Each structure stands twice: as C-alpha cells, then as structure tokens.
Amino acid sequence: MSSTHPDVDAVEAARAAFARGEPVLIHDAADREGEVDIVYPAAAVDPDAVSRLRNDAGGLICVALSDAVAETWELPFLADALEHPATEAAHLDYDDRSSFSLPVNHRETFTGITDDDRALTIRELGRAADAAAEGAFGADEFASSFRSPGHVTLLRGAPGLLADRQGHTELGLALADAADREPAVVVCEMVDGDTGEARTPADARAYAEREGLVYVEGRDLLTRLD
Ligand SMILES: O=C(CO)[C@H](O)[C@H](O)COP(=O)(O)O
Ligand SMILES: [Mg+2]
Ligand SMILES: [Mg+2]
Fold first, then answer.
1. Is residue 71 part of a domain?
2. Which CATH number does the domain housing residue 69 bear?
3. ipTM attached to this prediction
4. 155 lines ligand 1 (CB under 6 A)
5. In this structure, what is the dihedral angle of CA atoms 79, 83, 88, 90, given to the nearest 10 degrees?
6. What is the pLDDT of residues 132-188, one digit of tens each?
7. Could you give the residue numbers annotated as active site?
8. Which domain holds residue 14?
C-alpha cells in the first residue's frame, strides 16, 4: 500500500488510464463518505462495463455531468425540482448537498435496466456531453434523445468543481478534464457482497491489483488536479 502523499504516480496512472477509456477506483476521504467508486469515462462504457459495475461495485450506477453541460441541458438538482416535503431540509451528514439530478434512459432503450440498455444510455450521454461542450447538443436535442424517469441517475457537478465540492461527482469530472475526456463520467459505489457495507479502501485496492486497475485517493487528486 502506498503511504506517500501526494501519490503522483497514482494520479498520473489514473489520468493515463482514463485517457485510454479504462476504469479507475477513487476513494473520496475517510471523513466524507469513506467510499470507493468505480469510475469510467461515459463514452467508453459498453455492456461488459455495466456488468462490472453491477457485479463488482454493486452500488447505484450514475452519470456525473459538468455544471456547464447540465446548464446547457437545463438539468436541475432533484431536490430543487421536486415539490415534496421529503426534499425539505434534506441534510447530508457528510456534505452540504446531494448532486442528484434527473434519472434518465436513452429513448432507444426498452426497459432501460439491462446491461445493453444502460450501456446505450451511458455511452450516448458521454457522446452528447462531448458535443454539448462544443456547443453542438442543446436542451432540445437532449430531450429528444433521453427521457425521464429512467434507470441511470444523472449527477450535476459543482460549478467550481473541486474548489466547491469534493464528492466522487467532482473527483471523477476533474479526472476526466485532466485526461482530456468528455465531461461525463459513470460512478458506482463498491459495496461488499457479503456484508452489504461499503468496501474498505484496503479491500478495494486489493480488487484493483487483482484486476490490473488503478486505485487513487481523493486527497491525491485534490492536490494534483485542483
Ligand atoms: O451517492 C452517490 C450516488 O450513488 C455516490 O456517492 C456517488 O459517488 C456520487 O455522489 P458524491 O459526489 O456525493 O460522492
Ligand atoms: Mg453517496
Ligand atoms: Mg460518492
């Protein structure tokens, strides 16, 4: 286990892996969620990647979008969009607010939940985010391509990214930016299949080593990418 900080090698390996379209494991912080997410650039996701997220991560499969893309597509925070008492004072113990936005499916999916369907939704979100960042995919195109409710939860990144919030939403988007990838990343928490608890960083790191994947600490991304 690496104990140097910042772990420059891990950050560089994460950036290079992401640039190639490979997944990276990111631990946010022991004093935040204390969770490790498997994170992919959205446009690189295929049905095998969704299978890995379901079987080896097991949490909620979400796509984080940059604030600029979410603004272009007029995507609200879910808590602001819903008028329901459950959204009042929806305080988190570990952060100021949730990054949840709308849940969506691509309009060419059937139920939206199969590996093929979720891969299609996620990949097309990645491609559309890339186009939106170039000014070529607006709110009307988003609404004609995706419907809500759906089976992939969108997350909206903070405007100032890591300066504003240090969740997996922003850590993943900052890594995408550093790797010159589209401003859309899939995140999914690693949950222990036996205990149902969040996988420990040591356990997640061992998984990464077995699978030949990069594991990186959020604090190292914060130091190197901020
Ligand atoms: O709750 C979540 C969605 O399943 C996850 O924690 C995900 O990592 C994104 O949230 P955050 O940016 O708060 O870490
Ligand atoms: Mg969470
Ligand atoms: Mg998280």
1. yes
2. 3.90.870.10
3. 0.99
4. yes
5. -30
6. 999 999 999 999 999 999 999 999 999 999 999 999 999 999 999 999 999 999 999
7. 37, 62, 94, 105, 151, 189
8. 8-86+93-225
* Residue 117 forms part of a structural domain: yes
Asked whether 179 and 41 are in contact (CB, 8 A), the reply is: yes
pLDDT at 99: 97
CA–CA dist 93, 78 (Å, integer): 18
Which amino acid, one-letter code, is at 225?
Answer: L
With a 6 Å cutoff on the Cβ, whether 59 touches ligand 1 is yes
Burial 62-90 (b: 16+ CB within 10 A, else e): bbbbbbebbebbebebbbeeeeeeeeeee
User: How many domains is the chain built from?
Assistant: 1
Residue 17 falls inside a structural domain? yes
Ligand having the closest approach to the CA of 167: 1
pLDDT value of residue 204 = 98
**Distances from the Cα of 2 to the Cαs of 23, 28, 48, in angstroms?**
20, 16, 30
Return the pLDDT at 149: 97
Identify whether 1 is part of a domain. Answer: no
